[in-house]
Specification:
The complex is a heterodimer of chains A (162) and B (278).
Chain A (H helix, E strand, L loop, with lengths): L1 H18 L12 H13 L1 H19 L5 H17 L7 H25 L6 H37 L1
Helix pairs in contact in A: 1-2, 1-3, 2-3, 2-4, 2-6, 3-4, 4-5, 5-6
Chain B lengths: L1 H23 L3 H79 L4 E11 L4 E5 L12 E4 L2 E9 L4 E5 L6 E6 L5 E6 L5 E6 L11 E4 L11 E9 L6 E8 L8 E5 L16
Antiparallel strand pairs in B: 1-2, 1-12, 2-5, 3-4, 3-12, 4-5, 6-7, 6-9, 7-8, 8-11, 9-10, 10-11
The chains are: A mainly alpha (162), B alpha+beta (278).
Chain lengths: 162, 278
């Protein structure tokens, strides 16, 4: 649990501000904390998903200098939801993972937008979706699928060696 | 169990909303400071590691780019070298052809320009193949010349080519005389690829190293006055009937690429039409 939480913190919230710019493609950066939270929630269930989402989101909020609690809330919800639904979904195929992460990114963005609107967030949703959310959602989908494949390969290698 | 799950979620949502509410009421900076205490050292460490990893990666990319650039530039240099050689070769060929054309235009006899397409340089035979043959009405025993002098004679004519027996062929003999003294004799090819001038001892007493020899025109085979070579050494055999002189050929047979096949039969001396001194 501690190791996974550390992974969430290091691989998600904190890493996002330092590592994501290096992964920028055509101005689009992936939402690393979201990917990490989703992958962990799928493996560890809703409780862990919610806590990991909260921690990663909170650190992301702090690192970004925005409103503390927005992403903590949205990612906690996403972590919980995906953790709860994970056992009922066939999520081992990249064909599922890519659109899955795309949809989750869009869902998280919509919840975040709704929350921010309460605090008079000025940007229009249409532009935000077209220029930020959808490109990032696609990037998250492909990066997440790559991570899943890499994890599967590592697990397979470990299983063979033991 | 299920209730605990939802309770946890509710707590998290409540904490988030509390944070947001506090911030909206002006207490945001303290909460932010609290989180920053944890995140800042982590971020600093992470940034160091990331920067280090990125630096290694950037160095690797630079190295790779430099290598690719190096490979590309090497290929470019290679291509330019070949290009330069080709230009130089074309330039040389152009110069040779101009010289040949100039000779062809100024000679008072009809000639046919040809290109050397093969060489037989074994020692038993020294011959060149010229790309003029029966179709060009080339006949056997026709003289073949270059802008520097006599190359040889045609000994075999084929449909599209002809074989030129070079002066240095061991079977080659040409009637010649020394320009300065008019000493007559025969220029023979030797198996080692050199030329020698065979002359009557009594006629060649005044022969000197450096004397130029040209065709004598005797026998009607070669036009008179075509340079053959220059005396390099004299082999005085005392009381013998014949003496010999080693010659430096006027033509570099190994490098001749274009020739003129003499098709007309002039009556005048051609010495004046070639570079002075052979």
């Amino acid at each position: 649990m501690r190791a996974l939480l550390a992974l969430t913190v290091f691989g998600g919230g904190v890493a996002h501000a330092t590592l994501a710019p290096a992964l920028r493609v055509a101005g689009v950066t992936p939402d690393l904390p979201l990917i990490v939270v989703v992958l962990l929630a799928l493996r560890r269930g809703p409780e862990f998903g919610a806590v990991a989402g909260f921690v990663a989101g909170l650190l992301q909020d702090a690192a970004g200098g925005g409103l503390l609690g927005v992403q903590a809330l949205t990612k906690a919800l996403i972590g919980f939801a995906i953790g709860a639904a994970g056992s009922r979904l066939a999520v081992t195929q990249p064909l599922v993972q890519v659109p899955g992460l795309v949809l989750l990114t869009v869902a998280e963005a919509l919840v975040r937008f709704a929350l921010l609107k309460l605090f008079r967030f000025p940007a229009p949703l249409g532009e935000l979706l077209a220029w930020v959310v959808l490109p990032q959602a696609l990037y998250n989908g492909f990066l997440g699928a790559l991570l899943v494949l890499a994890l599967s390969w590592i697990e397979l290698t470990r299983a063979r060696s033991t | 169990m299920k209730a605990r799950k939802y309770a946890l979620l509710l707590v998290l949502v409540a904490v988030s909303l509390l944070l947001l509410t506090l911030q909206s009421r002006g207490y945001g900076s303290r909460a932010g400071d609290l989180v920053a205490v944890v995140t800042t050292p982590l971020q600093a460490g992470y940034a160091r590691v990331t920067r280090g990893a990125l630096a290694v990666w950037t160095t690797y990319l630079d190295w790779k780019n430099v290598r690719a650039e190096n490979r590309r530039l090497r290929a470019e240099i290679e291509r330019l070298r070949v290009e330069a050689l080709r230009v130089s070769e074309t330039d040389d060929e152009n110069r040779r052809l101009r010289t040949l054309l100039a000779l062809q235009e100024r000679l008072p006899l009809t000639t046919l320009a040809g290109e050397i397409i093969a060489r037989e340089w074994g020692g038993w035979v020294r011959a060149l193949t010229v790309n003029r043959g029966r179709a060009d009405r080339v006949a056997r025993m026709t003289a073949v010349i270059s802008p520097f002098g006599l190359v040889g004679r045609i000994v075999d004519v084929r449909p599209g080519s002809a074989i030129v027996q070079v002066l240095t062929d061991p079977a080659s003999t040409v009637g010649a005389h020394v320009v300065r003294t008019r000493t007559p004799g025969i220029v023979e090819g030797e198996p080692r690829g050199t030329l020698r001038f065979k002359y009557l001892a009594r006629d060649g007493t005044a022969l000197q190293v450096g004397d130029v020899l040209v065709t004598s025109g005797q026998g009607g085979l070669f036009p008179r006055g075509i340079p053959i070579g220059r005396v390099r050494a004299i082999d005085d055999r005392g009381a013998a009937l014949f003496n010999y002189a080693a010659l430096d050929p006027a033509v570099d047979f190994g490098r001749v690429d274009e020739v003129l096949v003499v098709t007309g039969r002039p009556s005048q001396d051609l010495t004046a039409y070639f570079p002075p001194g052979g």
